[in-house]
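Bumping with the actual sequence this time:
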Amino acid sequence: VLLSCRSQLQEAEAENSQLQLRLKELSEDYRCRLAQYLRDLAAYMDSKALGPIRGSADGTAMKSIVDSMLQGIRASYRAREDQLAKAARGYQKRMKTLVKKHENLLIAYGLQREQIRASGSSTMDCGPAELHFSITDPELLTNTVRELQRLREQKAKLELQLQEVQQVLICLSSLRLLTEKGWAELRKQLQEFTHNTQEVLEQERSQLLARALVAEERVSELQEYIEQHLAR
């Protein structure tokens, strides 16, 4: 809805530009008509100058032609001015309505963002700040809207600072987790090293015991052999 209102605002601005262009075209048309009237007047005067001299009735007729011509021009300009003034009033009324609706939508949008933040949901995107959708045309900004604009700018700055603080806290928490994971990994490696070393030592001990038993048996055999031979 907010984007639709912005689109309507752009359409109204485009319509205003078209009306201004139409006004320029009509002004050129009226100038051409006025030039044609003057040419007709010059032709009329030339024809009067070339013709026979006439009485004051001709002067009265000439005055009537000129007055009629000027009245037509004034009436055309007046009608066009009334039409443009009516269009301008309608345009301003539409702009005021759209600005008011736009502000209500921004307020509702801001409340929705605050509700999302208050819910504590970190996975849901709150969307850009209200300042991103604010009207920037100074002709459409009232004193109230300007004050709201200033407050939105301050709010946007505070939100940026809050995000920076949250990023720092996340980094510290990640660092703490990494430190804890590092110590856990180190303890795990020490335990594995101790276990592996103990297994190796046990294997060597078993081998040494076996060799000792074999050596003792051989010593016993040698002693028995020596005693027998010495007895002989």
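The tokens above came from a reply further down the thread. The chain has two domains: 1-141, 142-231.
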